[in-house]
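Researcher: Go.
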Amino acid sequence: MADIYTRYSNDLLQKTDFAAEIYEHKDQIVHPYFHYHDHYEILYVYKGKRTITINDTNFDMNESSIAFIPPYCIHKAEFVQSNYSKRFMINFSTKFINQLSQPIRKKLLTCFSVPNNTITFGKKTIEELVSLFQEIIYYQSQPNDEFSDTRNLLLLSKVLLIASEASNTAQLNKEYIEYSYLIMKISEYIDNNHQDQISLDTLSEKFNISKYTISRTFRSITGYSFVQYINNIRIIHAQNSLLSTSQKITDIAYTCGFESATHFERCFKKITGITPKEYRKKYRVFSD
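Model: Structure:
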């Protein structure tokens, strides 16, 4: 995950399974490439504007909208109109939310299955959520105590419950929700095995579901075809290697699962707009 903001987000969860922060961007984002992570993310931009691209769909974030980004969901965020924005972000792991019982967890996490993964709320609901965000930030600034984990879980549950109810997620197609969970598990498998040659046959056997269903569901849930998704995952891993190692580009191509350096360079340029060599030269400075 080469994006500098991805690394920052991951650092947030290095020592804990729940973290929240307010961050102020005063300058243009230097490196707005696609990334993903293995935890849940809630993103609220309450000052300025940013365009967020989740999977293959663009959405202009504003003071009424909140993004609910599930694990392994490819996304990026860019500024709109000005170089200033202020955002609130919550990150929590699967392990953290799994402290809740399965029925409750399933209900609360439905807000991560809404189309485009972004919900627009009314003024009253936003005010209620912002109040909870402020409370979360306050306790994040305090020393941990014996009640910290329980308190964080309670406050997070309140946020997710409000989001699920206000967005009418109960009316979501149950099949869509089930398939979104399935795609998250398949995406986790792809991430952990991206260096191997993964086919629809492999996934069909692994998850006991037809190739046709996987292919159709990938497109409907993520906006990407299966091949597009796995290529994006491999390119993101390649970006990280280009910035954090001195490996030869050809070696990186094979390590990330591409069958040839030519195919790797073609995919890399198509996704990022520049060649791997240009990428390393342009952005290596920001990773040092």
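Model: The mean pLDDT is 84.
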